[in-house]
Amino acid sequence: MYALLSRIYTAFGPPKADKVDGAIRFGVLGAAKIAPMAIITAALSHPEVIVQAVSARDRTRAEEFAKKHGIPEVRDTYQDILDDPNIDAIFIPLPNSLHYEWAVRSIRAGKHVLLEKPSVNNQNEAERLLNMPELSQPNAPVVLEAFHSRFHPALQKFLSFVDGPNVVHVHTDSMVASWLTAKDNIEFNYKLGGGSMMMLGTYNFAFLRMIFGAEPEECLNVDTSTFGDGIHDQCDTDFKAKFPFPNGGIGEATSTLRGPYWWKPSEARVTHKEVVVPDKTLPSTQEMTRTRVATMHGMMHAIVWHRIDIKDSYIIRDKVDGSPIKQWTESASHKAYTFKEAGGEFASLPGEAWWMSYRFQLEQFVNRVKGRKTQYWVTAQDSIDQMKMVDMAYGKSGLGLRPTSEFR
Q1: Pairing verdict, β 89-92 and 112-116
Q2: Which ranges in 112-236 belong to alpha helices (H)?
Q3: Which of 16, 178, 199, 356 is most buried when burial is the number of CB atoms within 10 A of its CB?
Q4: Per residue in 387-404, pLDDT tens?
Q5: pTM of the prediction?
Q6: Dihedral (CA of 355, 358, 359, 363) sign
Q7: CB-CB contact of 117 with 358 (8 Å)
Q8: Do β-strands 167-177 and 89-92 pair in parallel, antiparallel, or remain unpaired?
Q9: At what angle do helices 380-397 and 123-130 cross, to 10 degrees?
Q10: pLDDT per residue over 319-334, tens digit each?
């Protein structure tokens, strides 16, 4: 318990690093609730990042936000930030329907972009944004969809136990308690790109794609709920979706923005098919097989708490008639708050147990901007494929795709 409390305390109040010459200066578009955790707190401990300026639709709100979070400058408009030659990168935590426009504007202004997930409203926007000619030029701006949870060591540790081609079924679930959302919030505003699949289910979809190491072939079915009040009818409050993948496996995602009062950690449960495990100690007439179930609890916010459970069921069979000779189960649990704990190919990467996934993400973003090696990245094609999956689900649901920006 002490370790947990100490980790969380330090995560939200990290030691402040001395800033180096050439630090990346960020401008933040919007005084959004996610910004303190996603960039401001993460930047405190990074010697190469300074959050320099913020702007909001209401300048008074921006000034209060800047004062609270120690941001030196407040600008009247988003464009004022883009026009500042001293700003190197833009963080965009705006409502989803504004992502496309302000990401395009930022790129045209020559700024690097850290773009809150989902990157945009639909596949059409993703393809246009991430195939902009400016991004194929020498020294092009860096653009990253801020899928922070994908950068945490715990997820990489979990994936080391998963064999995508042999996965037969994946169950994922996530939730936000109903007291954290309200009917008139942006989460349920269709014009702003709202809906539970956009706000929360996109995590589930990303995990399914990572686990299978492939893209879904289609969306088989989607069950959704809405408020049914004639106003918010195009925004799902919760959903359950099913997708087939090329190896024949099935991925399921369920999520709700109207969850119970008590928080239930997000979960991914992966069932593999039975595979033969080589064992030279067995006689030639026998073979050993294994069926693995790998479960990650706390897949979205691993900094708070997570646990990776691995259950392997073994059978030794007679090769002639297939009769079982011996059966047993082996179970183990794992955690990884740092890459050193995660082990494997990333074991030498920097990080502290109190680093949030946002801090691990920022490390890679800075590396890419500085021209250094990045060990993990969300590519442009990855972000396009992610929105294709979201579109599949919304298309199948009957609620319709989220609206496309008219900005050009």
Answers
A1: parallel
A2: 123-130, 153-159, 196, 202-212
A3: 356
A4: 999 999 999 999 999 999
A5: 0.96
A6: positive
A7: no
A8: unpaired
A9: 160
A10: 999 999 999 999 999 9
